């Protein structure tokens, strides 16, 4: 007698019923496994879709940031306004100062123009901008040199 595939004639009625139950459970388990495989495939498809959407969102944000930098370099006030309107920059002194301090893609003359405005907000941003610089252990000449390299006052010499 083959243990894996017994001859049905050699089985008792109880064994035959047990064999039928086992086959039915096996079929149910295989169906459940297939359902799980399908669900996993759906989850992976959703993850791929989410990653694509996230990449698209990040690309759009980077494009808007690039536009904001260009606008800033042409007209600093309009550039900051654009960045705030597009939620790329918070409308607070610290965020604006950090943006200018990092200066990624910004024209130093435009930074100097913005910081040189006499508007109260610009003066607060100027103070926060200065606070971003580390002057510890520098003599006066070194400190002024490092600070003047951060922006251009627009003086021709």
Automatic annotation (TrEMBL):
Domain SEC7: 54-155
InterPro entries membership: Sec7_dom, Sec7_dom_sf
UniProt keywords, alphabetically: Coiled coil
Keyword set includes Coiled coil: yes
Domain of life per record: Eukaryota
One Gene Ontology term of the molecular function aspect: guanyl-nucleotide exchange factor activity
Coiled-coil portions: 19-53
Gene Ontology process terms (BP): regulation of ARF protein signal transduction
Protein name: Cytohesin 4
Organism encoding this protein: Ailuropoda melanoleuca
Gene that specifies this protein: CYTH4
């Amino acid at each position: 007698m083959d243990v894996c595939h017994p001859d049905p004639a050699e089985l008792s009625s109880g064994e035959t019923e047990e064999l039928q139950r086992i086959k039915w459970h096996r079929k149910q388990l295989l169906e459940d496994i297939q359902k799980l495989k399908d669900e996993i495939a759906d989850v992976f498809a959703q993850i791929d879709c989410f990653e694509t959407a996230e990449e698209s969102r990040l690309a759009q944000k980077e494009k808007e940031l690039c536009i904001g930098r260009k606008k800033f370099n042409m007209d600093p006030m309009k550039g900051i306004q654009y960045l705030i309107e597009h939620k790329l920059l918070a409308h607070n002194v610290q965020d604006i100062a950090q943006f200018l301090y990092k200066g990624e893609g910004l024209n130093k003359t435009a930074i100097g123009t913005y910081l040189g405005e006499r508007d109260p907000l610009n003066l607060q941003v100027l103070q926060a901008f200065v606070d971003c610089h580390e002057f510890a252990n520098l003599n006066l000449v070194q400190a002024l040199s490092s600070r003047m390299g951060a922006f251009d006052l627009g003086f021709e010499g």
